Design the sequence.
């Protein structure tokens, strides 16, 4: 009877959190003895591997990880909180701000120049290919004329 209670608790959790393809996912997890408590203790990569092994629908697996990342009692939630990096605020004086803006504008200009050069490079490649075709055609014509001339003599 305990197994049935665990299955119901797992199904209820998945249903409350609106997991995609609940029935199939719940059955597959329960079939190998995974309980709600187990899910709460698993790391995200362990859940991904488990879902892959059990051939759980990909969207359900992604959704399950997302749900657990937002569930306060889960290991995924704790791991996510520990991964959050706090970026310190940087206060710039006017001179530094101007320098930073100048660097930004220069980089923006370089990006545009790079795009323009890449387009020019593509045009050059196309022209080279066209000239190569013309050259091959001219060569073939010359060889043909030489052979015709040789036949005359």
Sequence:
């Amino acid at each position: 009877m305990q197994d049935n209670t665990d299955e119901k608790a797992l199904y209820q959790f998945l249903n409350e959190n609106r997991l995609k393809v609940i029935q199939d996912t719940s059955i597959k997890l329960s079939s190998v003895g995974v309980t709600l408590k187990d899910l709460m203790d698993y790391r995200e990569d362990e859940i991904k591997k488990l879902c892959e092994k059990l051939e759980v629908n990909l969207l359900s697996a992604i959704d399950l990880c997302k749900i657990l990342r937002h569930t306060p009692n889960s290991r995924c939630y704790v791991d996510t909180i520990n991964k959050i990096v706090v970026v310190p605020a940087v206060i710039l004086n006017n001179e530094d701000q101007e320098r930073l803006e100048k660097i930004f504008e220069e980089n923006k200009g370089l990006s545009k120049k790079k795009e323009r050069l890449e387009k020019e490079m593509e045009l050059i490649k196309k022209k080279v290919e066209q000239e190569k075709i013309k050259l091959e055609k001219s060569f073939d014509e010359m060889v043909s004329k030489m052979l015709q001339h040789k036949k005359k003599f």
